[in-house]
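Example (one chain per record):
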Amino acid sequence: MQTTVTIDDQQLKSLMLYTHSNTESEAIYKAIQTYLQQAKRQQDLLALRGQVDIEDNWQALRELEINK
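Predicted structure:
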């Protein structure tokens, strides 16, 4: 699919630098892929809300660590 977008030249150059891309299209593709991966991870983490039981014993663990 082709889409025409207006992107600031400096931002596009920075994107190409950070993504180590040789072409503008490749840089944009990599940026979209990275964004989608991060968004999916965030949704997966939010789906775990309330399902993970974390024991609140950090003070006891710290005391054990100090007494070693």
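Caption: The longest helix spans residues 24-47.
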